Amino acid sequence: MTNPRIKNLIAALLKGDCPESVAQSRKLIEGGAAPEEIVVGGVEAAMTALDSKCTLEQFNLLEIMLAGRAVTEVMKDLFPDGEKLPSVKGKILVASLEGDIHDLGKNILKMVLTGKGYAVVDCGKDCPLEKLIDTAGMEQPAAVAVSGLITPVIPLVRQVRPQLGQRGLARVKVLAGGAALKQSSAAQLNVDYVAESAFDILHYLDGSMEAQR
Amino acid sequence: MNSLERIVETLNFSRPDRVPVIAQVFGHAASVAGVPLNEYVRDGQLLARCQLEALSRYGYDAVFSMMDASVEAEAAGCELTYREGQYPAVSRHALAAGGDWDALEVPDPGSAGRMPEMLKALQLMRRELDGEVLVVGCVMGPFTLAAQLLGMEALLFLSVDDPAGLEQLLGYATAVVTRFGREQIAAGAHLPIVFDPASSPAVIPPDFFRAQVLPFLSRVFGDFKAAGAAANWLHVAGPAAPVLPDFTDAGVDIANFDYYINADEAARLLPRVCLNGNIKSVAFVEAGAGEIGQKAGALLEAFDSRGGFMLSSGCEIPPESRPENVAALVRAARAGS
């Protein structure tokens, strides 16, 4: 994307300014840009810039959620009625497991991954393990990411990988994050990776996809 | 020297007989008593009994009338989901963005939801332990309560879309919290600890905390002191280092710091504020007693010359924690004397 106007879109997305983001996206369309170009050059570029800002010391949900809301509005405007999104890097299942009715962390992850070109299947909060595994069987994702705010879900998290294995889905990566889960190691949770933030998951997935090419 | 005297000495940066140990044991008291958690969080008498039994078992220096994080939210109209073996959590928020918040009523702690049961627990524990052990009440911070009333995502968007609405909601949440806290002090709490996980820099930027949240926390702490609180105690979860120095302006006397912040950094950021922390909560579930003892020993050593320290976890000791790990924490404090 060489259109200089894309910078205006990126700036609006990073400010979390929904009306301005949609307006800039529409100007780009009027100028002849393809929706796919706007996603790659604008939306994904904005998420990359946000990623580099969000270090451990300077990570906060407010900024990410505001940008995420603007990204969501632009995507809806570009692809109304759930039209197929472009350049899907891979499919990821996200869930908060049964007993955990908090879903903010999961929703943040969904926004970040969607903004960076992943197709996200949301199994929701309070998701029974059986439903997660069944959905994995149907969707054949590259990874399953579980978010947990409370410690009682830890025993369930430990079961995800063996249950995927029993369904012939051992290749599916299992990722964990959230305030309770990130206090444990990957070995303790029996997962492939424990993330400090949604962007950590993104980096892991990008690296994993790159390695498979 | 009894527990209360030990804590007062520590607050004054004097030298008590040993470092106080504040195990943040809430629902774990029910677990070790064999009481279902969903009964513990609804019955003040049961809560007091479990807390006293846990105190007797472990021998730490404070008891807590803390049911869960949703007592004020429920009293103010949120619906909660209660499940066996778990703390209740908000399943329907009391408020919606764009609603009319002019006529919101501040719940009466004498009758609203489970507030009276928490007050009953405080009365019972204070009567039993008067003058010997610190009796701690608990309220949520105004920003955390506002997040429960409206939903976290909606609250964060409100802060940008309607700053006046945010101010109004935080004013209401402050009124709920201060009224409840004052009643806790009247019922026998030496002080209410203020839990404010939603104010963590993991959630909101430090500048936002200073401009939008801190003034309301200051109001809460000023009110508690006026009502007779022995000290003001604040817990902000996670990587709170950027906002720790601001605690002094809010009138905080004790700051609970989480495992993200190391002991030296916490001491540097709050040189004259009593600190408590910071062993990882999950370690009490997953680690062994040896590891807890080792971490506790390192903390005691780090604060040895400074003083003003109470050995503790960085956040709650989870209900399902291994009892030998809580015992190891207490043992370390006693051995360090």
Q: What do these coordinates show?
A:
The complex is a heterodimer of chains A (about 210) and B (about 325). By secondary structure, chain A is of the alpha/beta class. Chain A has two domains: about 5-80, Methionine synthase domain (Methyltransferase, Methionine Synthase (B12-binding Domains), Chain A, domain 1, Orthogonal Bundle); about 90-210, Cobalamin-binding domain (Rossmann fold, 3-Layer(aba) Sandwich). Helix content of chain A is about 55%, strand content about 10%. Chain A is built from nine helices and five strands; from the N terminus they run H-H-H-H-E-H-E-H-E-H-E-H-E-H. Chain A has helices at about 5-15, 20-30, 35-55, 60-80, 105-115, 130-140, 155-165, 185-190, 200-210, and strands spanning about 90-95, 120, 145, 175, 195. In chain A, strands 2-1-3-4-5 form a five-stranded parallel β-sheet, sandwiched between helices. In chain A, helix 3 runs antiparallel to helix 4 and helix 5 (about 105-115) packs across helix 9 (about 200-210). Chain B is α/β, with parallel strands linked by helices and about 325 residues long. Chain B has helices at about 5-10, 30-35, 35-40, 45-60, 70-75, 115-130, 140-150, 150-160, 165-185, 205-225, 265-270, 285, 290-300, 325-335; strands at about 20, 60-65, 80, 90, 135-140, 190-195, 235, 255, 275-280, 310-315. The interface of A and B includes residues 16, 62, 101, 154 and 188 of A.
How would a textbook summarize the main sheet of chain A? 5 strands, parallel
Task: Give the topology string of chain A: H per helix, E per strand.
Answer: HHHHEHEHEHEHEH
* CATH topology type of chain B: TIM Barrel
Q: What gyration radius of chain A follows from the Cα positions, in whole Å?
A: 17 Å
Layout of strands and helices, then pairs:
The complex is a heterodimer of chains A (213) and B (337).
Chain A: H1 6-15, H2 18-30, H3 35-53, H4 61-78, E1 91-96, H5 104-115, E2 119-122, H6 129-139, E3 143-147, H7 154-166, E4 173-177, H8 186-189, E5 193-194, H9 198-212
Parallel strand pairs in A: 1-2, 1-3, 3-4, 4-5
Helix pairs in contact in A: 1-2, 1-3, 1-4, 2-4, 3-4, 4-5, 5-9, 6-7
Chain B: H1 3-11, E1 21-22, H2 28-33, H3 37-40, H4 44-58, E2 62-64, H5 71-75, E3 79-81, E4 89-92, H6 115-129, E5 134-140, H7 142-150, H8 152-161, H9 163-187, E6 191-195, H10 206-226, E7 233-235, E8 254-257, H11 263-269, E9 274-279, H12 283-286, H13 289-302, E10 309-313, H14 323-335
Parallel strand pairs in B: 1-10, 2-5, 5-6, 6-7, 7-8, 8-9, 9-10
Antiparallel strand pairs in B: 3-4
